[in-house]
Amino acid sequence: MAQVLIKSVNKIYDNGFHAVKNVDISANDKEFVVLVGPSGCGKTTTLRMVAGLESISSGEIYIGDRLVNDVQPKDRDIAMVFQNYALYPHMSVFENMAFALKLRKNSKSEIETKVKAAAEMLGIESLLDRKPKQLSGGQRQRVALGRAIVRNPKVFLFDEPLSNLDAKMRVQMRAEISRLHKNLQTTMIYVTHDQTEAMTMADKIVVMKDGVVHQVDTPLNVYNHPVNLFVAGFIGSPAINSIKGDLKNEAGKMYFQNQSLKIELTAEQSASLKDYKHNEIIFCIRPEDIYDSQFDGLVDHPAKTSALCDLVEPLGNEYMVYLQLGDTYLTARFDPKRLPVINENMPITFDMSKAHLFDVNTELCIF
Q1: I need a surface site. Which of 42, 224, 250, 330 has the fewest CB within 10 A?
Q2: pLDDT per residue as tens digits for the range 204-240
Q3: 204-219 burial, b for 16+ CB within 10 Å, e for fewer?
Q4: How many CB atoms lie within 10 A of CB 195?
């Protein structure tokens, strides 16, 4: 297997568009790395440069110890799984999976052994004689995975492979690909715009926007310690609550305050920000860190207030509650202990130990 190293890579198109800007990413041997970000952020372009399907404007890409900038895609020892499956419609499942092995002049018996082993791993042994048009979307994606597996590449590349599947099938295929990574012990780089896929599958997440890498870390560190406002807002569903306001120092205590809300900061937050030069900040808190204080009284770092219940979405195992405090709107995720009533004034509590504070100008995390 192999490490993939992307060093100071840029992609500038002929029209001057700078799609990928000085990107540095490492995918260690056997690591599952997910590139995530909104559409147009440069993640697929980066993946295609690793595959050799896009030229590099500057920088270096290594697969193992080998510089592959000028190496043809077929000689990079990678396998790529595409969004649209890219199966040959006139070939059977067996023929699709065997095609690359035939090009390599593998023996008939070797091809049959490898294809059947991959089909068994993916649970598609009974489909080997069918044509792609006779398969469901999930089955086609398994065939595309099987075609990659039989090549036994150093690196697997995935370009939004689940985006054409329905929600239930996406969940199932996420588990299949994670299980595949565990069984094959191969380096995998996976591109998606779906942060849930990134959080559930990755050993390491690369968050991108506008061609720039904003944060590289484990899923939980990206979630719990976002480096800037974009990462905080992009990772997590529903999105984090963001409120603009001012830092206030009153009688030795520090508060976040706007026209609708006044919240005391924790001792740690206050100590960290005592020399902060700007008054205006952005206060962020995730929906699961807001509680209905009728039932959930926090002992450590509670900040209590009340809010008008604007809308409720009962989801069975939880309630999504949309709250209004004057001009401020919040989303909260409550345990289903009591169904809130629209237009009622609810007592709520913030877990301030989980709050994030950002500079209003740079949007960088200050606590």
Answers
A1: 250
A2: 999 999 999 999 999 999 999 999 999 999 999 999 9
A3: bbbbbbebbbbbbbeb
A4: 22
